[in-house]
Amino acid sequence: MGQPPAVAARGDGRDPVGLVDPADPVHPAGLVDPAGTVDTAVPVDPVIETRGLVKRYRGTLAVDGLDLRVPRGSVFGFLGPNGSGKTTTIRMLMGLITPTAGTARVLDRPMPRAARTVLPKVGALIEGPALYGFLSGRDNLLRYDAADPTADPRTRRARVGSALDRVGLTAAAGKKAKAYSLGMKQRLGLAAALLQPRELLVLDEPTNGLDPQGMREIRALIRELAADGSTVFLSSHLLDEIEQVCSHVAVMARGRLITQGTVAELAAGARGRLAVTTPDPAEAVRVLAAHGVVDLVTAEQRAAGGHQVTGELPADPPDLAELNAALVAAGVRVRAFGVERASLEDAFVALTGEGFDVAG
Questions:
Q1: Most exposed: 8, 112, 151, 189, by fewest CB within 10 Å?
Q2: What pLDDT is recorded for position 59?
């Protein structure tokens, strides 16, 4: 038997086994966060909820005690470097692998026991789509749709055509999938997830292999899907991708959840960097260091006619007006001065104390 029709996953072709357990209790409202406090501000209608979720492989702890809550209607970014446990978590949520410990609920049903009830309402792209290379893109989607017992065969071709159009593959629909580029295969996998309206879309690195224009198109599509009422759970190691399209985010590192909340809240929790534009970078660095500014970096900015010096302000920062005056008093010609808005990358570094592996 093939994999559930709504889930395009590579490497595990088995159907998740299990039926709904009517006796399974619904979790009470309120979720204990990593700091040990109850979060009552999170909506009580989560689309995804895990408690103490653990996955261990032969002594290796891939996911360690994950408490996650995804609000309905959000575009939720699941953020972390490669190897942090993101894909393992998604595979547990979709019933493709069984947790070692803990619980997971998707659309308010226990997984993997309720997989046959839940998965028809979920569209997923996990680790790249499983495709028949000898079939065209259109025929692959027809096969996917025919395997879905909830799909109406009378509207199959129209829905396949619409899905291809939404991901920009109409012109290549007749080409064999083995001739598709990596980016085209990603688009086709996303089209498979869009064959029917879904309450939840789970997308693992959806822009993998796409050129910049393709990435912009997929981001616009994700926003459109969210506006249409779907909850989108988006896993990525691309910080700018999460920051551009997501309303909420969770940060994973080494199998553990570091934090979760809105993107704005996470960015606001990190201090922005001081930025000074000047043709006198060496003297600016000396003055700033003397006033406690650390991690000073100088970069040439030809358009600005000088250099930009950036640095991290101390925990007890000096008055910015006085710092600017100190630069001027030392003869530094200041052409721009201010604190840059903290980015999601700043927040990640502040939370984990390490850089972000964007190269994979």
A1: 151
A2: 81
Tally helices (H) and strands (E) across the chain. 11, 17
Number of Cβ atoms within 10 Å of the Cβ of 30: 13
Pairing of strands 60-71, 46-57: antiparallel
Residue closest to 2 by CA, chosen among 145, 139, 203: 145
Quote the CA–CA distance of 77 and 71 in Å, as a whole number. 12
pLDDT digits (tens, 9 = 90+) for 281-338: 999 999 999 999 988 888 877 666 678 898 888 877 788 889 999 999 999 999 888 8
Of 16, 17, 38, 15, give the one whose Cα is nearest residue 28.
38
**Torsion angle in degrees (nearest 10) through CA of 252, 57, 61, 119:** 40
Is the pLDDT assigned to residue 255 strictly greater than 80?
yes
What span, in angstroms and rounded, lies between the C-alpha atoms of 297 and 77? 30
206: which strand partners? none
Cα–Cα distance measured from residue 70 to residue 90, given in angstroms and rounded to the nearest whole number:
13
Residue 196 CA to residue 1 CA, distance in Å, equals 21
Is the pLDDT higher at 45 or at 292? 292
Read off the amino acid at residue 341: R
* 256 sits in which H/E element: strand 256-262
